[in-house]
# Entry
Amino acid sequence: MAFDGKHALITGSSRGIGRGIALKLAEKGVNVAINYRQNEAAAKDTLAKVRQRGSDGIAIQADVCRAEEITRMFARVKSAFGKLDIFVSNARPDVPQFYQGPMNITLEQWDTAMNSQAKAFLVAVREVCPLMGSGGRIVAITYAPGGRTGSWQPWVGMGAAKSAMESLCRYFAVALAKRGITVNAISPGWIEDSVLNTLPDAVQHMVHAWHEGGWTPMGRLGTPADIGNVVSLLCSEEAAWITGQVIAVDGGSSLMDPGLPLEIQLS
# Structure
C-alpha cells in the first residue's frame, strides 16, 4: 500500500477513534492534520505521537458545527499541505449537547446533532474536492444501528444525523466516482476509549459484560486501532473499487438476532 507522501485531515482526532485513525495512517507514512474543538493539549499529544511514528502534521482548532469554521479549517490545510488525499469525518459534539429523547429534545440539541454530522459532511466534502485528485479517499464514521433502531431513545438526534450522513455518502460516491474519489462510511461497534467512556460507570460495566459475554461474537469491544486499520484499508489503492458503502466494523455484533436469547444463538 503506497501511502508515503500522502496527506490526511481527520476531524475530532485529538482522542478516541479519531486518534486511532490518525496514528494508524501516520504509521503508513501519511502526514496528518489533527482537528480538535477544545482540547488543544490532547491534539498536541496526538500530533507528537504522529511524529513519533515518522510522519508529520498540524493541529487545527475548528468547531465542525459551524460552516465558516470548516471553511477556515480547509484553508489552513491547503496552506500547510497544498493538497489532501484522505478526509475522515469523525467529529461529534459532547453527549450532553444532543442526548435527549424524541419527546424532549430541544431544537438546539437537534440542530447541534444535524450540524455536526450531515451538514458538516456536506460542507466538508465540497471544501475538500478542490484539494483532492484521482485516488482520493473520503470516509465518514457513523453508527448505523442508531439510525435503524428506535430503542436507544436519547440517541434520536444523533441517530437521525448519522443516517443523513450515510445517505450523503451514497450521493457523493456517485457524484465523485468519475474523478476516481471513493466515499464510504464505517460503522463501529462499541469501542474502548470512545463515547462509551462518557457514560456512567455502571452503564460501562453492563456494556462490557454484555458484549464480552457473547453479544459480540468475537468476545470483546473494539479499539480505536481496530477502526484505524479499516480506514487504512479503505484508503489503500487496493480499495479503489469500493464506494458508497456503510461497512460494519463490530466484531460481528450486527450479525446477532435481538429476538433470540444469546444461549440459543451461541449454542
Q: What stands out?
A: DSSP finds nine helices and seven strands in the chain. Residues 7-194+222-259 form a domain with the Rossmann fold fold (CATH 3.40.50.720). Strands lie at 7-10, 31-36, 57-61, 86-89, 137-141, 182-188, 246-249. The radius of gyration is 18 Å.
